[in-house]
Amino acid sequence: MNEALIKQHIKQYKDGIFKQVQHSTLLKYTGAPVIDEERLFFTLLPLFNGEEWDESQSKSAIAVTLIFSALAAHDLVKELNATTKEQQLQVLAGDYYSGKYYQLLASDKQLDLIQQLSDGVATISEQKTRFYDRQLYSFEEIIQSIQLIESKSIEQLYEYYSFHEYVFVMKESLLLIALKRELEAYEKGGKPFYISKSSQLQANINLLQVEIEKVESLLKEEITNSELLQDQLKGLLLDKLMRCTLEKQLREG
Amino acid sequence: MDKMKLKLLYSDLKSDLEIIEKELAVAVNSSSHLLNEASLHLLLAGGKRIRPVFVLLAAKFGNYSIDSIKSVAVSVELIHMASLVHDDVIDDAETRRGRETVKAQWNNRVAMYTGDFLFANAIEYITDLQNTYAHEVLSQTMVELCIGEIIQIEDKHYLEQTVRDYLRRIKRKTAILISASCELGAIASKADVKTVNHLKRFGYYVGMSFQIIDDILDLTSSDEELGKPAGSDLAQGNITLPVLFVKNDPAIEPLLSDILAGTISDTNRQILLTKIRESDGIERAKQISNIYLQKALDEVKQLPANSAKKSLQNIALFMSKRKF
Question: CA gyration radius for chain A?
Fold first, then answer.
């Protein structure tokens, strides 16, 4: 599938999701649900690679995106003093999107998928609390947590529909994108989501850079040599994943 | 509410409720130390477990088997627990049932993840029940619960709201989960459709009556009985049924404006509460609660005769007649 068509699909999905969860009060106070386009791209990767994609898979992909929107809404609740109307509704927005994903899959009679995805959400929530735990986790454990938080539900979607061979590229890509975002925000003096909460990451920024390079080279090789991915998609993926690095190199002269 | 007295009304469920309690402990068990601590903290805080009780009692009208209904009972209680954890963030509550809330002990974000974890486990648990209609009921309930909470925030401080607005709000906020507990218990035990519908309506009416009483008690109980300042709902901007009945009383109106604006002194709060207690607002609200209670009892009457029928009747009466 070419880039224009992919963009069109992503837009259609986003519109469909917005329609699914439209609520005037939430829209007014919390805005539209957060939909990470990169993640949506990877949710739909098998479709973009020409795999058969039916109505049920479409609904499941929307459900997975709603899960991430729900979790993202709760990430926007402040750690302290979440007393404004906007913040109160942010709590409810997350719960509402969660209810909607469950409702969507229940209406599609996808009980096994509901079971798997809910198990995944519980796991993601566990991993998120690691960043607040008194217990110290190793650098590797933190990276694993990030990967899980970023990709668990999509991995479950892939496994459910037997798209096992896409899992590696999706998981590593989403990890790479997340780590790059974190590092970039950190270097700009911002408050990246994971780094700001992990002393382990803060103390090992150089290790993070090494991890990024490692994942990037691994992915480059995997994608270039892949017999599964169509050439057009390979180019797009490489461009997407290496873009941040190029932009960074250009900025640094 | 006197938990001991309530427990006596369903003492024959004791061993099955112990199974549910053990199952709840398994359900909140987590690989994350913090989440484990937070969830256990919630579990130890107890609670009436009234929703699981309704699941079990409703299941008595079908082919009762604790193994086939325990996942439903655990699920509805987890949903209730999760919504309380998130509510405490919304209400900025420091304590609940005399214990520090998750958000107070850790922070809002941890409370969000704890609630998410519990909601997710609730859904996962009930997937043991391979009945798509049951999932449509529960998912609809979860969405409606949220909408109820959203409306509650919208309606805060809004004195022009009507009794109908209030009733619609408490339906979603409270009655629907109790109704779903009864309905799902009956579905899980394969009760006939007529019975399922009676139980569903029974749960709805009991839930309505219960919430009205809860709102009355917030105004009529002492600070000590409530474990928080009386009139807290009002101070947070939640306008409840007794207040709607007396909001235009000239002796009440100015004090009402002060409490809603957050500018009331403790002395004036007590004066306002006294005036509300002395008004006919409480009595009129009780009458509405009684209408729902009567409707609930009428639904029970139409159920087939068994031991659970009497228990449902007694619990409905207890919940709607409680003093605090």
Answer: 18
